[in-house]
Write a structure and sequence with these properties.
single chain, alpha+beta, 1 helix, elongated
Length: 49
Amino acid sequence: MAQCKHPRVQIVAREEDAEFVECLECGEIFEASEFKDMTIEDATPTNEP
């Protein structure tokens, strides 16, 4: 099974310095900063053959 790329997320909680989002596709909940990091990693070209 392919890993979900979390194409659609919604904010589910906010704390003082953190936001938590839920993927509307797979249901995973994670910190919004992690989602931003995932997006950057996906957009970075790799040198894999």
